[in-house]
Structure formats: structure tokens, C-alpha cells
Design a protein that fits this description.
This protein is α/β, with parallel strands linked by helices. It has eight helices and ten strands. Helix 1 runs parallel beside helix 2. The chain is globular. The termini are close together. The relative contact order is 0.16.
Amino acid sequence: MKLLCHRGIWTEAHQKNTHAALCAAFDQRLGIETDIRDCNGKLVVSHDMPLAETAGDLDALLSRYQDLQCSAPLALNVKADGLQQALLHKLQSYQVKNYFVFDMSVPDTLGYRRLNMPFAARLSEYESPGVLLDQASHVWLDAFDSEWYSMDVIEGLLAQGKHVAVVSPELHRRAHQDLWAALRRWDSADRLYLCTDLVASAMEVFHVHQD
């Protein structure tokens, strides 16, 4: 299993998605989940609509990733339409290869597909499998209200060759222990990711693959 540190490694909420929090994950060779938007003609790191003076510097983040020769996965939650070409150029400029994009609208997702950029199809109790699931290299497996899926669902997706990113329950303010116990059967699975706020605990529970 590999970890996706949800908005980096942080202890206080205001630290989420900061350069320091995201680079702390890179320093430990762990993957991240972070949010990409545009602001004043630039790609930036920000979950909410950003101001120019508060938006995270994507170039600085990717430069740090490159300087560390990090190869951990980047889960890029795309928060605005029409960023395909600019984002692809940025990732290529910093030689980032282990990434996927997700959460785009369906029309916008088609643009990433046309550019052969790895993208995730979403599955949750509110989102059924669609045609794009067959074409997606990754699956973002979410559960907003409760764990609606069985472990057979994950097994089936992995058997199809998908990379599966499981959203840990604490991101939706639920207890995580039962799901983590069930997921331990895949400690050695390279294509299973856990997106979590509880990075230190997850590293103790799972045999985490650090890249």
C-alpha cells in the first residue's frame, strides 16, 4: 500500500496544502493529495477560490519534488476547468511521471483523456460506475456517509489492473479503525493507495511503500 497524505503532513488545519506540509510528505518519500486551480493566469495549489497573495506556488512544489528525486504518487484534485494543457506542460517541465488527476467534470475529463494524462474515475454511494471507469487508470473510492463497498469491490478493481485510491473515513469525520483493519490484507499492494490525514498512524499500521 502507498499513502496519499491528504493536503500534506500537518498538525493544525491552517497548515493544510501549505508548501511546508506538502514538502514534509516528499521528505518522507510519501505521496500527496492536493488541489490545483488557476489564479491570475497561473496554476496554483489551493482548495478554495484563491487570492493571488495566498495561493500556493505550484512551481515551487514541483521543483522541490524534482530536487528530491521523489517518485511518490501525486493525486491532483483539479478544481477548475480548462487546465489540461497548462498542467501537462508543468508536469513535463518538472519530469513528474507518477501522478493522476481527478474530480473534474465529465466534459473536462475528456480533455485529459485526449492528452493521455492518467485520470481517476470516482466511485461512491452517490456516483455509479460509468463508461469512463473502463478508460480510467485510477479509481477514487469514496464513502461520504458510510463504507458502502465491500472488500470484494476493491479486489475486483485491482484485478482489472486499476490503481485504487481509498478515501479514509476520518476525512468525513468517521472512525477509521474498522476499514484500516480490513485493508491490511493489501499491505504489499503497489496499486492500492490510502488517502489519509492520519499519516503517522497509517505508517505504523500498514507496511507502507515509500518511493
